[in-house]
Automatic annotation (TrEMBL):
Residues 124-224 form the OmpR/PhoB-type domain. This is Response regulator transcription factor. Pfam families: Response_reg, Trans_reg_C. Keywords: DNA-binding, Phosphoprotein, Transcription, Transcription regulation, Two-component regulatory system. It comes from the Bacteria. InterPro entries: CheY-like_superfamily, OmpR/PhoB-type_DNA-bd, Sig_transdc_resp-reg_receiver, WalR-like, WH-like_DNA-bd_sf. Residues 2-116 form the Response regulatory domain. The keyword Cytoplasm does not apply. The lineage of its organism: Bacteria, Pseudomonadati, Bacteroidota, Bacteroidia, Bacteroidales. It comes from Phocaeicola faecium. Residues 124-224 bind DNA.
Length: 225
């Protein structure tokens, strides 16, 4: 999962980033309103952790910009400004949750997991497609009921497609979602091709019914023939 932290407190932003990365999230940062605005215009995120009081703007205005762009990104407001008015306004603008500062990182992790389960898996703790089952909280993959070992990026790629079965995914979008912002500036995508080749081999050897199909010149699609 790819997360953007919009927070002007450098220490809090770094601590939260390190904690999320330990949980295997892909994390990007924005220390102010304008940086955050450029990022939400250029990239897509699974969730934005949004501070209200920014040095050059109001986080609630950024939430409005996000919705104006037509992006349905999950948003959790993180703010010391714990007034009922701001909380209600944020939720009315489409925020999914509100966590006042100071917050415990364990609670933030729990809320993120709950949010993703609710919005992407209908509250289920596992993701299933064909004979593949993912247990995201444990980073476990089962194919035909048997556990299959994948490296971190192979797992992340599989998880991305398991949440989007049958959907054509552009290789640039895949790269940004699994490796992070600015990955589109690299010279080539050989590192992606290598990971996908290995993932395909693991799936085939384990007898997976879904296949990761290449669509020439565009990207990939995860389908059951």
């Amino acid at each position: 999962m790819k997360i953007l932290i919009v927070e002007d407190d450098n220490d809090l932003r770094e601590i939260t980033t390190r904690s999320l990365e330990k949980e295997r999230y892909v994390v990007s940062q924005a220390p102010d309103y304008m940086t955050a605005l450029r990022k939400i215009e250029d990239y897509d995120y699974d969730c934005i952790l949004l501070d209200i009081m920014l040095p050059d703007g109001n986080g609630l205005d950024l939430l409005g910009e996000l919705r104006a762009l037509g992006k349905r990104t999950n948003v959790i407001i993180l703010s010391a400004k714990d007034s009922l008015e701001d909380k209600v306004k944020g939720l009315d603008l489409g925020a999914d949750d509100y966590l006042p500062k100071p917050y415990h990182l364990a609670e933030l992790h729990a809320r993120l997991k709950s949010l993703f389960r609710r919005n992407t898996r209908e509250g289920e703790h596992t993701i299933r497609y064909g004979n593949i089952e993912l247990v995201p909280d444990l980073f476990k993959v089962l194919i035909g009921g048997k556990e299959v070992e994948l490296n971190r990026k192979e797992y992340d790629i599989l998880s991305y497609f398991m949440l989007r079965p049958g959907r054509l995914v552009n290789k640039n979008t895949l790269a940004e979602s699994v490796w992070g912002d600015h990955i589109d500036q690299v010279d080539n995508f050989d590192f992606i091709y290598a990971q996908i080749k290995n993932l395909r081999r693991h799936l085939k050897e384990a007898g997976a019914t879904p296949e990761l199909k290449a669509v020439y010149g565009i990207g990939y699609k995860f389908v059951i023939e």
